[in-house]
């Protein structure tokens, strides 16, 4: 095996590991499986194993990995769905230890039960993630004041998560606290300057409160990022 072959093999292994951990993280956060992604991860792993076991050239991975993605996509609407059986067995190993009871209730729409579980999690070990999830559940039950308090606690424990500031801004906006909402959205943007949804939302609030100058600033930034959104905002700004 030459140097280029080793490079292709190593990069393929790293990419497959990153992909499988991404699927695991998605399942942990959303408490649901993504069968197409699972199958892609499974087939990529099988490709690497076959190359190693059969002493094939790593150059085969240049078509095997893309084929894994295509087969994963096709499995959503074709009889290839039967392959999910094997990928599910494979990913049971990846999913060990990621069950989140509160998220399960949240995804199932049982928000009151989810709140109970998240509060119990916080009692045992207060974490930013638990407070964030509690805020989500409070938001679904229209308990905005408690939702805001939960997000603020999450920020105290971890002030570096842009989505927490975004959700806090949304909660403030829903309760009519426009300036606090603006501050929260801007905090989200400071952490992630490409947070298009935050820029779009704060621009709309600037328009609502009559702050044309700041609305134009956000509009100009969004012009080069999302044409559809910028066109919508242009109409709103011109109607001010």
Question: How many beta strands in the DSSP annotation?
Answer: 0
Taken together, the total number of domains comes to 2
**Main beta-sheet strand count, sense and barrel state:** none
Coarse shape: globular
CATH topology of the largest domain, which one?
Answer: Serine Threonine Protein Phosphatase 5, Tetratricopeptide repeat
Number of helices: 13
Distance between the termini: 67 Å
SSE ordering: HHHHHHHHHHHHH
Q: Strand pairing plus helix content: what structural class? A: mainly alpha
Query: Percent helix among the residues?
Result: over 70%
Radius of gyration: 23 Å
CATH architecture verdict of the largest domain = Alpha Horseshoe
Taking all residues together, what is the mean pLDDT?
91
| CATH class annotation of the largest domain | Mainly Alpha
Low-confidence stretches: none
Beta-strand content estimate = under 5%
Query: What is the H level of CATH, i.e. the homologous superfamily of the largest domain?
Result: Tetratricopeptide repeat domain
